[in-house]
Specification:
Layout lengths: L1 E6 L4 E2 L19 H15 L7 H11 L4 E3 L4 E15 L2 E13 L4 E6 L5 H13 L11 E5 L10 E4 L10 E9 L2 H19 L9 H12 L5 H5 L3 H6 L8 E9 L4 E2 L13 E9 L14 H14 L10 H4 L15 E5 L9 E10 L1 H9 L2 E4 L4 E11 L12 H8 L1 E7 L17 H11 L5 E6 L29 E11 L2 E2 L10 E4 L7
Parallel strand pairs: 4-11
Antiparallel strand pairs: 1-6, 1-7, 2-5, 3-6, 3-8, 4-5, 8-10, 9-10, 12-14, 12-16, 13-14, 15-16, 17-19, 17-21, 18-19, 20-21
Length: 533
């Protein structure tokens, strides 16, 4: 089946039905089959450099003309603009004008689907697709169009159906009839033309046999010239030709009744379709680059905390909170501006996936999931900064979905991500753990007590806590924590710890505990020892 999909870049379809004047304010909706076939023939001349319609073009036209297509129409509204055209005549020193209405169907980004129930041969199908790709306008010249042919097995969209009337069938309420101009079948036109020419020649008194004078030959040629030789010739005639010969409509055409939805062409603005609410997304992965592309200019891993805060600031700036609508998963606060509990909102984790000592990606995740408003803000972030806001970093969205899916990265980056979001029994700090409260020698605020409380608030089981001594392998973690300059909460303890957690059963990451755990500190990774799974 030949299927054409039409989209109008200007959002408008301009066309007046046959037999009506432009100032009547009527729009041909849907576009008539006659108009569509004529547009394809015209496109062949203008874009394929036809001197005459080739044999495959003739087959294509005859196949499309032999059946009535079915449509799927987008929501559309009737509109018009008014133009006062000059007439080159003066009246009391001023030029006269005449009012001209330009009526159109406003379709926005909607698409019209047209399907002819006919099987095209391979050559005709290829030509159909080529002509569709080169179609520039449909209707009046300001009615720009982008068209494409789709495969036979692609289903038509639901809703907006328009289909030819069949005698004895009548749809339910909510439909009305419109008359569209369609093509005569090639054989039907040839039979009709032969009968009409014979009738006209009989009235002319042309002899059936014997010698025909030169004058009579001219009269016969004139009579036959009033009737185009075939359907393809009819399609190539301009309006002036058949109006000059007092045809009531283009030869080779007829009217066919179609059914369409009653509200197919509304008077007034079209109700905007409700956009589907996207499903919550658990995590996003950003890739960091510098404008120069230099990897050595990426920030050091010791800038984990400030880089996370700068990106979070960029995310919140995209929310436009001035409208009063909150986004708790990004702001970390409820509608009363109270801090959220439970750690289900956003965590911003800068990571060094290629292990070269520089931050190259940022993992953004929230156990509660990011809703539509948060997703819109996240997708609009394009840059962040480093070194106190002086250097620019470009931010590109590299992936989104469940955290477990991030393990399936490239062979180069996958192991680092698996250590962050995988499942294991033993976990060790990748960034230093900073206690969220002042340390005490006894009670709930010992180092082990604070870690146990942090695990509980995140819904994690208890674990054995081992504080590791500083060594050459962990000494660099000291530089991750520093007192902030200017505003901002200071860490309650000017100290950091390297911690190993051993759970009774394997748990799934990420595991982030302690002060600034939503901004990359206290981030644990699975160890590769025998207790890891």
């Amino acid at each position: 089946m030949a299927t054409l999909v039409l989209r109008f870049p200007g959002g408008r379809y301009h066309a007046t039905p046959a037999g009506h004047h432009v100032n009547e304010g009527i729009v041909e909706w849907p576009p008539s089959p006659w108009r569509l076939v004529r547009a394809l023939v015209s496109c062949g001349y203008t874009t394929q450099r036809w001197d005459d319609v080739p044999a495959v073009g003739r087959r294509l036209v005859e196949q499309l003309a032999s059946v009535l297509p079915e449509y799927r129409l987008p929501p559309a509204a009737l509109g018009h603009s008014r133009h006062y055209m000059p007439t080159a005549q003066l009246d009391k020193g001023r030029e006269k004008t005449t009012l001209v209405l330009d009526t159109f169907a406003h379709v926005g980004d909607g698409e019209i689907w047209v399907r002819w129930p006919v099987a095209l041969d391979e050559e005709a199908a290829a030509l159909f697709a080529t002509l569709a790709d080169h179609l520039g306008y449909l209707g009046r010249s300001e009615s720009w169009v982008l068209a494409r042919a789709v495969a036979d097995d692609v289903p038509l969209p639901h809703g907006g159906r328009a289909w030819p009337h069949v005698d004895g069938e009548r749809p339910s309420r909510g439909h009305d009839q419109v008359a569209l101009t369609v093509c005569d079948g090639p054989a039907d036109y040839a039979s009709w033309r032969a009968a009409e020419v014979a009738r006209a020649l009989a009235q002319l008194g042309a002899p059936d046999g014997g010698k025909i004078t030169a004058a009579m030959k001219k009269k016969i040629a004139k009579v036959e010239g009033e009737y185009p030789v075939d359907l393809l010739s009819c399609l190539q005639l301009d309006t002036a030709w058949w109006q000059e010969r007092r045809w009531s409509q283009a030869p080779g055409s007829r009217r066919a009744l179609y059914w369409r939805d009653t509200n197919a062409l509304e008077v007034g603005p079209v109700a905007a379709p409700r956009r589907p609410v996207p499903n919550p997304v658990e995590a996003f992965l950003f890739a960091l680059t510098t404008p120069s592309g230099s990897r050595s200019a990426l920030p050091s891993v010791t800038r984990t905390l400030p880089q996370a805060e700068l990106l979070h600031r960029a995310l919140v700036s995209k929310l436009d909170l001035a409208d009063g609508e909150n986004c708790p998963e990004l702001t970390g606060r409820d509608d009363e501006q109270r801090p959220l509990r439970g750690h289900a909102h956003a965590h911003v984790l800068p990571v060094d996936l290629d292990r070269d000592g520089r931050l190259d990606h940022i993992v953004l995740f929230a156990r509660s999931g990011f809703g539509a408003r948060a997703q819109s803000a996240i997708r609009r972030v394009e840059r962040t900064y480093t070194k106190g806001g002086v250097g620019e970093l470009q931010v590109a969205l590299a992936g989104h979905g469940p955290l477990a899916g991030f393990v399936d990265l490239s062979a180069e980056l996958g192991p680092s991500m698996a250590a962050l979001v995988g499942t294991a029994r033993v976990w060790q700090t990748a960034t230093p753990f900073v206690p969220p409260r002042h340390l005490k020698k006894r009670g709930a605020n010992t180092l082990a007590g604070q870690i146990a409380a942090e695990l509980e608030t995140r819904g994690l089981p208890p674990a054995e806590v081992e504080v590791l001594p500083w060594s050459s392998a962990t000494h660099a973690l000291r530089h991750y924590v520093r007192r902030r300059r200017g505003r901002g909460p200071q860490p309650p303890v000017d100290a950091a710890f390297v911690v190993r957690l051993a759970f009774a059963e394997p748990v799934t990451g990420p595991i982030c505990l302690g002060y600034a755990s939503h901004y990359g500190l206290g981030c644990f990774t699975a160890t590769s020892g025998p207790d890891s799974r």
